[in-house]
Amino acid sequence: MKPDEILRVVDAIHRDKNIDKEIVFGAIESALVTALTKQYGENAEIAISIDRNNGRVSGTHDGVEIDTQELSGRIGAQTAKQVIIQKIREAERDAIHDEYEEQVGFMVSGVVSRHEGAMATVSLGGTEAILPRSEQIPGESYHPNERIRATIFEVRKQGSRVKIILSRIRPQLVQRLFEQEIPEIADGVIEIRAISREPGYRSKVAVISSDARVDCVGACVGVRGNRIKNIVEELGGERIDIVRWSDDLQVLVPNALQPAEVDEVILCQMLGRGIVLVREDQLSLAIGRRGQNVRLASKLCGWDIEIMTRDELDQQIEKAVEGFASIEGLEPDVAERLVGEGFLSYDDLSVIEPEDLMEMGGLSEEAVDAIVTEAERRATIAEEAAADQRRRQREQEQLEATAAAVAVEAPSEEAAAPEADDAEPESSEDSEESQPEEPSAGEVPDAE
Questions:
Q1: How far apart (Å, rounded) are the C-alpha atoms in residues 22 and 12?
Q2: Model pLDDT for residues 60-73, shown as the tens digit of each residue
């Protein structure tokens, strides 16, 4: 290639492929070295350089300058062509990789180009990304030419290509949507401190305002809920709870468990657990459907949260003190101190730090090991007993369901029997005396 041709090629690749000119120059130099190595042998010392201003090629072979005609002639145009193409492809791959690797965790918008099986291919403009089933919100489906938003989850090189994996189930998507829809967050007035999410079902977002005049929760909800509505629609109807953040766990935990009303929060520092006391009528609301509310609140606060009523706590405390005191080597006063720190089961006691128990009870290392071993044994027995009880309960529920089904079918068969009888019907008087009164629809007759 002539000098002016080299400059044109470098400029064209830079504009079309968005590859830095220095990378292209380096690729051509490397390709020329590779081509000349095939001619002079593997042991030859070859150095090639291209003037970045005028495109002139110069080089040496074992310290001897190479004829420029040779460099710009057959070798440059023929032998090095494939090597240059390969180097350019690698440079293009690296440029795409570096561009999108910097955007990991950020939101991008693309168009679904095709949907094959469970995986959607999304066009991001200059390249394509994939949205696998495992990173899709449950229940969502995508169609060609549909525009979607997702976060970049992973970017990695795969041969001569770059594999970009998108996600719609990560908490980062909720955060980016909040930043896009709520100007106060983008401006830094409101900060998102924590997010816990179960994709497609429910999320909790903890926010705080640096300006006392700005209500962080109200700003996120928007006038008549228009801001949060846009986010919910983007997430396919996923419910979003906006929680007011506080560094005080006594405040944060009740906020995180909303809409349930909390009576008291007891923090167990040694276990990293919070025992939350609620009224009986608030128990199911605090726990949530299948434990979802308390599970998300735990993730948001970074503490294990256990919901119970005052009566349940008193019963557990009484059982724990009695059970711990029955362990050989564990004095009643130490058992009470353990319960006061939040240890309410053998399983809790089995994971205590030996140093803490030694300090609390003035015990030797051998005594602590024996206590922990006994606690582990009792925890295993209790777990097996609980599993057995759950199994028996399931079997009982199955038996009751079967019995109910049989009882419902029986009246229907009895009611259908007279219609199938070919015999002449009895007189109305005999019929009234001989046949019992039929139950109403869905009612199960009493057993005599």
A1: 13
A2: 878 788 776 666 55
Which of residues 347, 367, 392 is at a domain's end? 392
Residue 372 and residue 359: Cα distance in Å, rounded? 15
Tokens of 3: 């000098």
Picking from 61, 68, 51, the residue whose alpha carbon sits closest to that of residue 6 is 51
For residues 153 and 184, membership in a common domain is answered with no
Tell me the per-residue pLDDT of 413-445, one tens digit each, with 9 for 90 and over: 555 555 444 444 444 444 444 444 443 333 333
At 188, which CATH number?
3.30.300.20
Length of the chain: 448
CA dist., res. 349 & res. 325, Å (int): 12
pLDDT for position 88 = 74
Q: How far is CA 177 from CA 185, 235, 272, 315, in A?
A: 10, 10, 32, 46
The two three-digit tokens of residue 253, written as one number: 């935990």
Cα separation, 156 vs 94, whole angstroms = 10
Which ranges in 326-364 belong to alpha helices (H)?
A: 332-340, 346-350, 354-361
* Residues whose CB is less than 8 angstroms from the CB of residue 422 and which lie 6 or more positions away in sequence, other chains included: none
Backbone phi and psi for residue 276, each to the nearest 5 degrees, phi listed first: -110, 125
Task: Report yes or no: 287 and 307 within 8 Å, Cβ to Cβ.
Answer: yes
- Are 38 and 92 part of one and the same domain? yes
Domain that holds residue 215: 170-245
Domains held by the chain: number: 4
User: Which residues, listed in sequence order, are joined to residue 192 by a DSSP beta bridge?
Assistant: 207
Query: Is there a contact between 262 and 274 (Cβ–Cβ < 8 Å)?
Result: no
Asked if the structure places residue 297 within a domain, the reply is no
Same domain? 145 vs 157: yes
| Rounded-to-integer distance, Cα 259 and Cα 286, Å | 8
On whether the CB atoms of residues 290 and 266 are closer than 8 A, the answer is: no
Task: Give, to the nearest 10 degrees, the angle between helix 81-101 and helix 21-40.
Answer: 150
Is residue 288 domain-resident?
A: no
Say whether both 365 and 380 belong to one domain.
yes
Query: What is the average pLDDT score of the chain?
Result: 83
Alpha-carbon distance of 167 to 104, in angstroms, equals 10
